[in-house]
Every structure is written in C-alpha cells, then in structure tokens.
Amino acid sequence: MDNDIQEVLYDQESIQKAAERLGKQITQDYAGSTPLFLSVLKGAYLWTADLLREVDLYAELEFIKISSYHGGVSSSDEITLVTDVRSDVRGRDVIILEDIVDTGQSLLFLKELLAKRGAKSIKVATLLDKIEGRKVEVDADYAGFNVRNEFVVGYGLDYEEHYRNLPYVGILKKEVYTK
C-alpha cells in the first residue's frame, strides 16, 4: 500500500499531537458539560479513539453512518443516511467527529438533521479540513490540520474501502484511482 502513496502528509506523531491539542481545547470549552460525541463512520473511527482519549470530561459516544461518495473519488451531491444515531439529541451538546470536511455537504446534512432533532449545540471536530473543496458554507470548529485539495487516504480515510489501516494520512497517487 505504501507504494500507492505519493506523499505522506501527517504521520502518527503529528496526528497524536493534533488530538492532544484539540482534546485539551474541547475539555476547556465543555467544562461542566457532558457532550455527546457523534462519530461519523467509517472514516472517523481512528480519529475518534485518539481524540476521545485526550478529552477529560464525562461524555457519551454514538455512531452515525452516511454515504456521499458512492464509489468515486469525489463527493456526490446525494447524501444517504445509512445508520442513524440511537440516542436522543434533544437538548444535548453534540460534537460531530469527522475524518475530513471536504465539500461540506455531508456535514451540512448532519448539522441540519441534528438541529431538526433539537440539539442544544452542534460543533465539529475533524482530523482534516479541506477548505478549498467546499461547495457549501460550513465550518469545522476544531480542526487537526488544514489539508490541500488532494485525494488523501489513510488513518481511516479510504479509496474503495482500502487504505483505512495506513498509520498516516497521505496523498494517493492519481494512477491508482484513474485506472
């Protein structure tokens, strides 16, 4: 798999430092609260584990699965709710945990869904923020890294369900996904 990577952008040590930095900030921002962390599957599972270990609060964890890629290398305009959250979010502080915020369409979908269900507040903690890729106006409240407009994999991010298990985030060589 390493041979398919053009460039490693963020290694495990850098990612861990980002998790520590954001974990401390979230701990400060939510002192006295019990936030609901909502991990977006499948991509955010590693980021969720690392970030939550750095948060010193009583907290709850839920998972939600949406799909926007449908097998390609760019997000489609169609968002599908695959697996819904089980907890009632009404009156709760919710922190969405994302692997990457790219077009913003998936995040906007989730924020609107949670707002409609009565969440008290909705914030976003993402490993990667690809601001250049935005199609809609939505922001990450906590971002590990700003990433340039490249197709990245590893550390939970995939191409056709591969590369999630790489211990780093890297740029996938174009010849891999343009075959």
Describe the protein's architecture and organization.
Residues 9-159 form the Phosphoribosyltransferase domain. It is found in: Cytoplasm. The chain has one domain: 3-Layer(aba) Sandwich (Rossmann fold). The chain is 23% helix and 30% strand. The chain is built from four helices and nine strands. Strands 4-3-2-5-6-7 form a six-stranded mixed sheet. Strands 1-9-8 form a three-stranded antiparallel sheet. Helix 1 (12-29) packs across helix 2. The protein is globular.
How many DSSP helices? 4
Q: First CA to last CA: what distance?
A: 16 Å
Query: Which range best describes the helical content: under 10%, 10-25%, 25-40%, 40-55%, 55-70% or over 70%?
Result: 10-25%
Q: In sequence order, what are the helices and strands, one letter per element?
A: EHEHEEEHEEEEH
Biggest sheet strand order reads 4-3-2-5-6-7
Name the CATH class: Alpha Beta
- Radius of gyration (CA) equals 16 Å
Secondary-structure-based class equals alpha/beta
- Based on Cα principal axes, name the global outline: globular
Instruction: Identify the CATH architecture.
Output: 3-Layer(aba) Sandwich
- The fraction of residues in strands falls at 25-35%
Q: Give the count of structural domains.
A: 1
pLDDT below 50 for ≥5 consecutive residues: which ranges? Answer: none
The averaged pLDDT comes out at 93
Q: Can you summarize the main beta sheet?
A: 6 strands, mixed
Query: Strand tally, please?
Result: 9
The CATH topology, please? Answer: Rossmann fold
Enzyme class: transferase
Pfam family, one: Pribosyltran
Pathway: Purine metabolism; GMP biosynthesis via salvage pathway; GMP from guanine: step 1/1; Purine metabolism; IMP biosynthesis via salvage pathway; IMP from hypoxanthine: step 1/1
Catalytic activity: GMP + diphosphate = guanine + 5-phospho-alpha-D-ribose 1-diphosphate; IMP + diphosphate = hypoxanthine + 5-phospho-alpha-D-ribose 1-diphosphate
